[in-house]
Automatic annotation (TrEMBL):
GO terms for cellular component: plasma membrane. Pfam families: FtsX (PF02687). This is FtsX-like permease family protein. Residues 209-319, 664-772 form the ABC3 transporter permease C-terminal domain. Keywords: Cell membrane, Membrane, Transmembrane, Transmembrane helix. The keyword Cell cycle does not apply. It is found in: Cell membrane. It comes from the Bacteria. The chain crosses the membrane at residues 31-50, 197-221, 254-275, 295-316, 337-355, 367-388, 416-438, 658-678, 705-732, 744-768. Its main location: membrane. The lineage of its organism: Bacteria, Bacillati, Actinomycetota, Actinomycetes, Kitasatosporales. The keyword Transmembrane applies. It is a multi-pass membrane protein.
Length: 779
């Protein structure tokens, strides 16, 4: 081994020993560094697990997919009908399943089931079982009142908190909603591509959620810097040169980094167990699926020690460690603005070519966008120390607490600035995201047309039976909270026009009483026996039948055998009526008629739709309506609460991912900031105790600590808001969306200030303990 290698080994080993056996102060520094690095490693490992989680969810969904097959019934085939219901905002997915060979079937049961459920039996997921057994699920238990026969295994679920069930049936027939299958597995791959705005949104979300992590890791590595410098000065006294002190400092910091990696791994194992019990907007994952990608894990675990070494060496460049216990800081020079602007200017330069030209295709433009966002966000943290120095340089006078705080910032604002760097990145990134979200939401959100002053919910059942429909309407009208129910039959009518009859387009036929028809069209003289023609928009290309046209009111639904025609002649009294906005938002056109015009006989096929005016402040009202509809048509009907807008599924999925990630990053921000604040207070323990011993009031010192936090926070949040607005405006322009959301920084800055305030308040008890007389002791 060469002399240089031996020197490195010796000095690194000494650094290791100082970190673990250097007394209480060294232990505390190592513990805080370990905790800070560990929190960062947890987030990195979770980020590295995203790919495995999405792949596992895709594989699980593929395994339980049943592909429709055009085959004859056999002992290895089964009929399947997929049904859904909603309960208090959560979607519950179910399947009615019926083996063609009954108990003699040799077909493989669904994944997670040992056997096909018998008719009337239900097998549920663990999460659904817990909900059904709880007091909150009482109304759902009334709806799904099948005999429970078991629990779906993990291999039959996409997520750990999925609300799924299988019900055995013996009355399924091939039709619109029922298909025959030979087995499970083989879901076709989706070819749907994200629009450019959503691609950019995903990229920015990834950057914003991960950018605070290296900031916190570098802050954790610098814990206890002043005490470390004094220890290194003592080592100079016994003969260590400057190069040796740097190697020793690196060895000492690597202990915290190494232990932080171990702690992060252990915390990751704990966190993934906790995540398995959480569902966010219906999305969850099994703990076994949260596995970091090996390449990304290696990259993250190598980046932490490398970052540790770089930060330690960079920090030592600003001090001169000399013998006799003296640490002389190099001559103070004003911070220079020039190089601090370089990252931000480079970020802007990379974004300018993308303005109005970002397509989301190709890895090069995506990498360019990601690099630009990283440079702009990191540039904001580089500007903050200069801004704080310039802002506090000329401040004079004021209360004692204010003077103590400002003087501390004038002498050394590095620790205070580092403490809020992470929150700055988060606020700037969140501001840009909010602006981009505002622009993308306009593109991904459409108006439903529902008139919430006239109706609040809509229901439908696949039947036109007069007695069943009337009984359901009567039950709904008696439901607590329901004020009015309008009901009509929606029937497909096909012109009987010779050989082309089977190819003719169907014409909607709406059958109801006059009270309902006047809500669907501008009808002023409605009377029993009346028939009204409501034209569709010209671009739809729908031609309404003339008087005397014969229509078939009984075309069989797809998959069912053709039935005998049910002819009906359009009467000569046909009257035209202008369309009126439907309370539920559905465009109504076609022929509107009263039952008397059809001879009082209901058509054999069609749906019954109901528009409800109800007070939905009580969540039970909507669930009682769903129960009534389910009783008439289990799984076949539907009830939905009306809304004025609806968001695309892709946009909703991205919002879900952002919510999950933001929760984790906010937890990291709060935890890391608390650790950083406690370390800063511990460094000043002797100084605080001395000031108290000299007569300074504790409240004055407490206020000074708050001011030391508040001044950089105000400046940092202001800078972060400006950078966030600039970044957001450029991102919006890149995907050619209308500029807007200029005040998006207000809630983001408020959230950042709230996190900082909570952390500061949480540190006050520790501050009071540090002011006790025993803080005067020193080693």
């Amino acid at each position: 081994m060469s002399g240089t290698a031996r020197a490195w080994a010796r000095d690194l080993r000494l650094g290791f020993r100082l970190a673990v056996s250097g007394g209480a102060a060294a232990w505390m520094r190592t513990a805080l560094s370990t905790l800070g690095v560990g929190l960062g490693v947890v987030v990195l490992l979770l980020a590295a697990s995203v790919t495995s989680v999405t792949e596992a969810r895709s594989d699980r969904a593929d395994a339980r997919y049943a592909a429709p097959a055009e085959v004859e019934p056999a002992d290895d085939t089964f009929l399947l009908s997929e049904i859904q219901t909603e309960y208090r905002g959560d979607w519950i997915s179910g399947r009615l399943i019926q083996p063609d060979a009954g108990r003699e079937t040799v077909a493989e049961p669904p994944p997670g089931l040992d056997a096909f459920p018998a008719p009337g039996e239900m097998v549920v997921s663990p999460a659904l079982a817990r909900l059904l057994d709880s007091s909150d699920g009482a109304l759902l238990a009334d709806r799904l009142d099948y005999r429970r026969a078991g629990t779906i295994g993990d291999e039959g679920l996409v997520g750990s908190q999925d609300l799924d069930f299988y019900v055995g049936a013996d009355d399924l027939t091939l039709g619109d909603d029922v298909f025959r299958a030979e087995g499970f597995g083989g879901m076709p791959a989706s070819q749907e591509r994200l629009p450019p705005a959503l691609v950019l949104l995903v990229l920015v979300i990834c950057v914003v959620l991960l950018m605070p992590v290296p900031v916190f890791v570098t802050t954790a590595v610098r814990f206890g810097g002043e005490r470390r410098d004094r220890r290194l000065a003592a080592l100079r006294l016994i003969g260590a040169d400057r190069a040796a002190t740097r190697r020793i400092a690196v060895g000492e910091s690597l202990v915290g980094a190494g232990l932080g990696i171990v702690l992060g791994g252990l915390l990751f194992l704990l966190v993934r167990q906790l995540l398995a019990g959480i569902s966010v907007r219906g999305t969850s994952a099994f703990a076994a699926d949260i596995v970091p990608s090996p390449p990304l894990t290696v990259l993250a675990l190598l980046a932490v020690p490398l970052l540790t070494v770089a930060v330690t060496l960079l920090a030592l460049r600003s001090v001169a460690v000399e013998p006799l216990g003296v640490v002389r800081k190099s001559q103070d020079r004003p911070r220079r603005l020039g190089w601090r602007l370089v990252p931000a200017l480079l970020g802007v330069a990379l974004l300018v070519p993308l303005l109005g030209d970002f397509s989301g295709e190709g890895g090069l433009t995506s990498a360019q966008a990601v690099t630009a966002v990283v440079l702009l966000l990191s540039g904001s943290t580089a500007l903050l120390p200069w801004l704080v120095e310039r802002a506090t340089a000329r401040l004079r006078g004021g209360p004692v607490a204010w003077q103590l705080a400002i003087r501390r910032l004038q002498l050394s604002n590095g620790p205070a600035v580092r403490a809020i760097s992470g929150i700055m990145v988060a606020v700037a990134g969140a501001t840009a995201l909010s602006m981009l979200f505002a622009g993308a939401s306009e593109q991904q959100t459409s108006r439903t047309g529902a008139d919430l002053d006239r109706a609040q919910a809509e229901a439908f059942v696949p039947t036109t039976d007069a007695e069943d429909s009337a009984a359901l309407v009567d039950e709904l009208r008696g439901t607590p909270g329901v004020e009015r129910v309008l009901s009509y039959a929606d029937v497909p009518a096909v012109p009987l026009s010779g050989d082309a009859a089977s190819d003719a387009a169907s014409i909607p036929l709406i059958v109801s009483d006059c009270r309902t028809l006047v809500e669907l069209a501008e009808i002023t003289d409605c009377a029993e026996g009346g028939v009204y023609a409501v034209p569709a928009p010209e671009e739809w290309g729908v031609t309404l039948p003339e008087p005397g046209t014969v229509l078939d009111l009984g075309p069989a639904p797809q998959g069912e055998e053709a039935a005998r025609p049910v002819p009906w002649t359009v009467p000569a009294s046909l009257t035209e009526a202008d369309p009126r906005p439907n309370p539920a938002g559905w465009p109504v056109h076609g022929l509107l008629t009263t039952p008397a015009a059809l001879g009082g006989e209901p058509p054999p096929h069609g749906d019954t739709r109901m528009i409800l005016s109800a007070d939905l402040t009580d969540p039970d009202t909507l669930e009682l309506v769903r129960n009534a509809v389910w009783d008439l048509a289990p799984g076949g009907g539907a009830v939905r609460e009306l809304t004025s807008t609806q968001v695309s599924d892709q946009f909703a999925n991205i919002q879900t991912g952002l919510t999950i990630g933001a929760m984790g990053v906010l937890a990291l921000i709060a935890g890391s900031m608390l650790v950083t604040t406690l370390e800063q207070l511990r460094e000043r323990r002797q100084l605080l105790s001395t000031l108290v011993a000299l007569g300074t009031r504790r409240t004055t010192l407490g206020a000074s600590v708050l001011w030391q936090t508040a001044v950089p926070v105000v400046l940092g949040l202001g800078l972060a808001s400006a950078v966030g607005v600039l970044l957001g405006a450029m991102l919006i322009s890149a995907v050619s969306l209308p500029l807007g959301g200029w005040l998006a920084f207000l809630p983001m800055a408020g959230a950042g200030a709230g996190v900082i305030a909570l952390v500061t308040l949480a540190s006050l008890p520790f501050l009071w303990r540090l002011m006790r007389p025993d803080g005067l002791r020193t080693e």
